[in-house]
TrEMBL record:
Annotated keywords: Ion channel, Ion transport, Membrane, Potassium, Potassium channel, Potassium transport, Transmembrane, Transmembrane helix, Transport
Regions crossing the membrane: 37-56, 62-85, 97-118, 151-171, 183-202, 208-225
The name this protein goes by in its record: Ion transport protein
Xref: InterPro entries: K_chnl_dom, K_chnl_Slo-like
Keyword field contains Membrane: yes
Organism: Phenylobacterium zucineum (strain HLK1)
Length: 267
């Protein structure tokens, strides 16, 4: 029994679509680079919307924009899934689960209102993705600038996520936090351990949250300082012991003594 023509056509078109998407997302042609730059620019617009969302919720057009952003993100995730060689391996990537969670909050904005602040995790997933560094940051891939950018992105993401926790937990219960800006102000003062004392979170949960913000903030600042100050080590896997970090001018692996051939830009 012959298969329907429409089903046969669909089976033929799907592999072609996957090949085209794989070329656009992972290819080296000028067309593929332009496409990825457009996708990254769109990512920055989405992140800007996520950061501005607490200030836009009162406007009537907010839900329309929210669902439109959800459609864009869903199409992007579907295209990335088709472009990837193995769907199972694609689903194992932490950034994919971050994006899927962001998509769920966009699809159900009224029910997941208190979790909407976690959408800013998209900022972290973007700057920690190979997609970004192989396109925009290819000149700085596997350099000190990559580590510094990732550390800054992690710190900024933590600030906005913590602000969202404070706002969602205390905005309607604490008189000192009347809006999102107050929550951001408290987060920054706690994170920098300045502690002016004009806003203090009540109860055990408030104290615990302040402690988490202070300890995590110090850790992230130390991490950022380390990436700026400490001697940079290049990423090059030793063929014998597998050590991945070496001094930029290393000739032998410090772990096993194997002769290394680390590529550099020197003539």
């Amino acid at each position: 029994m012959a298969e329907p023509a429409t089903e046969t056509g669909t089976r033929r078109r799907l592999p072609r679509l996957r090949v085209r998407l794989r070329e656009l997302y992972y290819g080296r042609s000028p067309r593929a680079v332009r496409f990825r730059l457009s996708v990254i620019a769109l990512d920055f617009l989405l992140i800007g919307f996520f950061i501005a969302s607490p200030f836009l919720r009162e406007y009537p057009a907010y839900l329309f924009i929210d669902y439109f952003v959800a459609l864009i993100l869903a199409l992007d995730l579907a295209a990335r899934a088709l472009a990837y060689v193995s769907l199972r391996d694609w689903l194992r990537r932490p950034s994919v689960w971050v994006d899927l969670f962001v998509l769920v909050t966009l699809l159900f904005p009224l029910w997941l209102f208190n979790l909407a602040f976690l959408r800013v995790l998209r900022l972290w997933s973007l700057f920690h993705s190979d997609f970004f560094w192989e396109t925009v940051g290819r000149r700085y891939d596997d350099t000190r600038w990559e580590d510094v950018t990732k550390a800054v992105a992690t710190l900024v993401t933590f600030v906005f996520v913590s602000t969202g926790f404070v706002y969602a937990s205390f905005a309607r219960e604490h008189p000192g936090i009347s809006g999102y800006l107050d929550a951001l102000y408290f987060t920054v003062t706690a994170l920098t351990t300045t502690g002016f004392g004009d806003i203090t979170l009540p109860g055990a949960w408030g104290k615990l949250l302040a402690i988490i913000i202070m300890i995590s903030g110090i850790t992230l600042f130390v991490r950022l300082a380390q990436t700026l100050i400490r001697p940079y080590k290049v990423r090059f896997t030793c063929p014998t012991c597998g050590l991945m970090r070496h001094d930029a001018d290393a000739v032998h692996c410090k772990a096993c003594g194997t002769l290394l051939n680390i590529p550099n830009d020197e003539v």
